[in-house]
Amino acid sequence: MLYLIGLGLGDATDITVKGLEIVRRCSRVYLEAYTSMLTVGKGALEEFYGRELLLADRDMVEQEADGILKDADVSDVAFLVVGDPFGATTHSDLVLRAVTAGIEYRVVHNASIMSAVGCCGLQLYNFGETVSIVFWTDTWKPESFYDKIKRNRDMGMHTLCLLDIKVKEQSTENLMRGRKIFEPARYMSAAQAAGQLLEIVQNRREKGEELAVTEDTVCVGLARVGAEDQAIRAGTLRELASCDLGGPLHSVIVTGHLHPLEVDMLRLFTSGPSGLQSLRTMDGSTCVS
Amino acid sequence: MLYLIGLGLGDATDITVKGLEIVRRCSRVYLEAYTSMLTVGKGALEEFYGRELLLADRDMVEQEADGILKDADVSDVAFLVVGDPFGATTHSDLVLRAVTAGIEYRVVHNASIMSAVGCCGLQLYNFGETVSIVFWTDTWKPESFYDKIKRNRDMGMHTLCLLDIKVKEQSTENLMRGRKIFEPARYMSAAQAAGQLLEIVQNRREKGEELAVTEDTVCVGLARVGAEDQAIRAGTLRELASCDLGGPLHSVIVTGHLHPLEVDMLRLFTSGPSGLQSLRTMDGSTCVS
Fold first, then answer.
1. Where are the domains of chain B?
2. Cα four-point dihedral sign B209, B212, B214, B220
3. Where is the signal peptide (chains A, B) (predicted)?
């Protein structure tokens, strides 16, 4: 049996009791380590689970999946995924390979950032399409996520923005020379995402477009959701661009139409009395009905 | 401290290790018992957690919240919620009351149906607004959810439909006479939801509307997601209307534009070779690009 087991979002203790029991009896346990991260590392997980974990990076999952699935028809293999195995990233490829090879699989669900963001008080019912925001480079500054946010906002919907993660990236030179030397991991912060969004707003303004998002649009930055030291900050897009929420992972929500109860909840996460006020008055298009 | 603890979606063992530790040391533990359910009852949870649970029905949470929060400023109280505490249902009211009373709170996240539906292989990124489908009566047959599904499909997005739950409902007569006699709990099945949707499709056809959904639109029925005996069925809306997925809870997804990898995954959940075929050919508007 292949078990795909979600680890949730905080630390080692966020695994479910069911998941932990399975981890402890599997013959091999892989840890998917390239699409997300917990606040603790592999060592802490190994100590808590009482099991050695085999790190599965992107190359391994995409190119050596047969190794992961080896003997899974006659023994139990676990594949651990931060969050939920079918949350922000899906592992359909691995499942399909397993089924094709005649291997049964089972999913042990857990919290995903896709639903845990509800903790800021915005109702999941009121979210439209989720978008990803990638790191811009000097020569590549895609704006397509803005248009999706605009489409959601036009319908009054909130937008969850998942932020870029760069793990095991090679510099162009190292890539060309075939050197397996990797750059330090990079995780986009809420402030960086807000900064890119502000730049797009300015671009669109200069083009004379009607703006769906402005510097005063109410946004929410979330960091380390589910961990002891999680941080949530509600404020304008401009405020978010200069706020420091600490270590990764971060997410951003661009709000749409706000329900009064949602406003009451967001007030818990503003930075001061002026911030509380701004939620009502600063952005006409998102104020309370 | 007030702890809002998600129980996940399957049985007693789907609580997280962190959640279980907190449950075992709180002075009082409430179980929210009106917006969802696990495959096991209160007794099984009490046995596994090793704690007595106080049932919190809708009346209690809405009218006697102060009782739940009593002494939570000086001791620890847990409020258990099936799924995630901020998933399909939010408990913002209770949180706001706690904060107003000077009580700290913390959330222990878990799997929510809002993200666990990803297990059918449809990518959560490609979902639009979530809708609720309520039980129709002889005199009240709201169709507004159809228009939201239409709006999602027009943009190529999938729609998660959460299905009605009737717990502790009174008959009109008992309500008028003030008798606290409750009807048996009712949970809408995927087939019932599909049946109501088919009726709307027929209504709209008779009005000459251009149809966003037809009898051949690819849908997915999901039952008891996360439980050992979960059932997932992919097929046309017509097929779904006559399929029996067993006991509650059920959900339905009306698909939008399908990515090839999503089709490959849905094929795992069709009822036979003809079903496999139907995913490609029967509904022009949702076939693979």
1. 2-111, 114-286
2. negative
3. none
Helix (H) or strand (E) holding A55: strand A54-56
pLDDT digits 0-9 by tens, A63-95: 888 999 999 999 999 999 999 999 877 789 999
What CA–CA distance (Å, rounded) separates A25 from A44? 19
Q: Do B92 and A261 touch (CB under 8 A)?
A: yes
How many Å lie between the alpha carbon of A180 and the closest alpha carbon of chain B? 30
Quick one: B2-111 is in which CATH superfamily? Tetrapyrrole methylase, N-terminal domain (3.40.1010.10)
CATH of domain A114-286: 3.30.950.10
Which is more confidently placed, B272 or B104?
B104
Find, in chain B, the residue whose alpha carbon is nearest to that of A22.
B13
- Chain A residues with CB-CB distance to B11 below 8 A: 18
ipTM over 0.90 threshold: yes
Closest residue in B to A262 (Cα–Cα): B92
The answer to whether residue A286 scores a pLDDT higher than 50 is no
pLDDT at B88 over 80: no
B87 is in an annotated binding site: yes
* Closest by Cβ to A96, choosing from B8, B114, B264: B264
